[in-house]
């Protein structure tokens, strides 16, 4: 049986399992936005842990991060520093997002922003920036899966066929099962591609001659064992990942979906082992050991994002089909949540809020499903643009960088009662403007576009907020006092 036939059979079996899970989940769905987007706020510890990890770690883990480690060596490993902090952020930010979401029945981040700042415009701004930031993130899931299919089958399955397979299937299962199906499928896919990554790591080490292969790197590729500096580059990625874990719309809505804050507390304890040790170290080992001469035939820096498919197409084509399924699992487990989130921003924050306020919950759910299909089509079209087919990590970092500029404004309802509407809006405008300017023209400072915008956005938020005052100051004080009473009852007394 040919490699192409085996790959197709494995892919059909894998997609069939996902379709079955989605079908089971759809039987419990209720035609309301809260149920369709947030699984009726009922996710437990295991599902929450797996869906947050699987939704955040995507094809860039099994492809892009490995490629970056191959090209940059130990320098890129510093990006994993964010993982030490993000578990803490689940509690520091996620629990407060959960509390406010449950209390006020929020569905989107924009719901919270409008409620706190009394500004429909800020809600609209959050929705637009969120959708724009999610597009690059969704793109790499589709392109990564398509590249893997193409690489493993030696171009027998063209890139465009892989794009259509990913697009059609993702659009179908997300429309069918919504947030509950996404969470259930993420749990299965997270275990699947996590286990596959561990197995792949040991296979690479064994094929390279054991752990001694890392010692040999001193003579084979000494440049990847040296920190090449450029702190700003790695800080750009680390900060984007760090804050992106809670500010990205699809991650924010995961916190709304938890059954209780205790679920988030347990998730914050478990997730470092799942996200840090498994994902970061696996990618590090594979990427660096791929430098061993002859280990991955045909490997060059230009195609290093496809190290795993290239390796298995040579040594173990049958297992390579499972690997491609794992890559596609990583992609689907991210794009499903991102598609749901994009649809909720477009439907709840724009259509229902500004165009048709009287639409029923059932009708809103139906419109959301149509929107998911349209969003899928848009992402598929973008995937054929050459600029979207570059290295995966930089494309993903662009998405993080865009949404990162929302962080200062989000700190208002979560922590800083002195933050004002003028400060929030101006911080986003300054942050995004700086990002675009630095991205196009560069900067004399050792900072990347996203970091430059983020720092100036925070400064703008603080300065403008100190110089302005909102009319609902008393209501904001009550908002923060209630949170203090909830989290620190002894201090509230």
TrEMBL record:
It is a multi-pass membrane protein. The keyword Amino-acid biosynthesis does not apply. It comes from Siminovitchia terrae (Bacillus terrae). One of its GO terms (biological process) is sodium ion transport. InterPro entries: Na/Glc_symporter_sf, Na/solute_symporter, Sodium:Solute_Symporter. It catalyses: L-proline(in) + Na(+)(in) = L-proline(out) + Na(+)(out). The keyword Secreted does not apply. This is Sodium:solute symporter family protein. It holds the Pfam family SSF. It is found in: Cell membrane. One of its GO terms (cellular component) is plasma membrane. One of its GO terms (molecular function) is symporter activity. Belongs to the sodium:solute symporter (SSF) (TC 2.A.21) family. The chain crosses the membrane at residues 6-25, 46-67, 79-100, 121-139, 159-176, 188-209, 229-248, 269-290, 310-332, 366-385, 391-414, 421-441, 447-467. Keywords: Cell membrane, Ion transport, Membrane, Sodium, Sodium transport, Symport, Transmembrane, Transmembrane helix, Transport. Its main location: membrane.
């Amino acid at each position: 049986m040919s490699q192409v036939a085996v790959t197709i059979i494995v892919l059909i079996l894998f997609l069939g399992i996902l379709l079955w899970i989605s079908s089971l989940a759809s039987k419990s769905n209720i035609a309301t936005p809260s149920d369709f987007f947030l699984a009726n706020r009922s996710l437990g510890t295991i599902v929450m842990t797996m869906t947050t990890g699987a939704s955040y770690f995507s094809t860039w883990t099994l492809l892009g991060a490995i490629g970056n480690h191959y090209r940059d060596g130990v320098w890129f490993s510093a990006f994993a520093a964010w993982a030490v902090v993000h578990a803490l952020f689940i509690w520091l930010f996620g629990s407060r997002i959960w509390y406010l979401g449950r209390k006020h029945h929020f569905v989107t981040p924009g719901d919270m922003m409008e409620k706190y700042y009394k500004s429909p415009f800020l809600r609209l701004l959050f929705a637009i920036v969120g959708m724009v930031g999610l597009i690059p993130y969704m793109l790499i899931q589709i392109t990564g899966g398509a590249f893997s299919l193409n690489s493993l089958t030696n171009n027998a399955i063209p890139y465009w066929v892989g794009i259509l397979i990913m697009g059609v299937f993702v659009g179908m299962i997300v429309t069918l099962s919504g947030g509950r199906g996404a969470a259930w499928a993420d749990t299965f896919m997270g275990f699947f591609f996590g286990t596959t990554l561990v197995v792949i790591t040991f296979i690479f080490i064994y094929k390279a001659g054991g752990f001694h292969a890392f010692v040999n790197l001193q003579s084979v590729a000494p440049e990847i064992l040296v920190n090449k500096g450029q702190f700003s580059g790695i800080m750009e990625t680390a900060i984007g990942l760090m804050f992106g874990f809670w500010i990205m719309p699809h991650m924010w809505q995961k916190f709304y979906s938890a059954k209780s804050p205790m679920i988030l507390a347990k998730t914050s304890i478990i997730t470092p082992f799942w996200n840090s040790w498994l994902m970061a170290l696996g990618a590090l080992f594979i990427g660096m050991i791929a430098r061993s001469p002859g280990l991955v035939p045909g490997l060059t820096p230009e195609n290093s994002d496809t190290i795993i498919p290239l390796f298995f197409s040579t040594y173990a084509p049958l297992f390579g089909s499972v690997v491609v399924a794992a890559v596609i699992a990583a992609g689907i487990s991210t794009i499903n949540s991102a598609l749901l989130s994009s649809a909720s921003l477009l439907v709840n924050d724009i259509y229902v809020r500004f165009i048709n306020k009287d639409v029923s919950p059932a009708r809103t759910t139906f419109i959301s499903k149509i929107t998911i299909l349209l969003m899928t089509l848009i992402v598929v079209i973008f995937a054929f643009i050459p600029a979207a087919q570059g290295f995966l990590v930089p494309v993903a970092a662009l998405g993080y960088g865009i949404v990162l500029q929302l962080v200062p404004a989000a700190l208002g309802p979560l922590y800083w009662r002195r933050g004002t509407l003028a400060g929030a809006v101006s911080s986003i405008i300054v942050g995004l403007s700086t990002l675009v300017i630095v991205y196009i023209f560069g900067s004399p400072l050792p900072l990347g576009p996203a970091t430059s915008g983020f720092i100036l956005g925070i400064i703008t938020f603080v300065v403008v907020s100190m110089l302005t005052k909102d009319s609902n100051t008393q209501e904001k004080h009550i908002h923060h006092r209630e949170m203090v009473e909830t989290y620190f009852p002894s201090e509230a007394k």
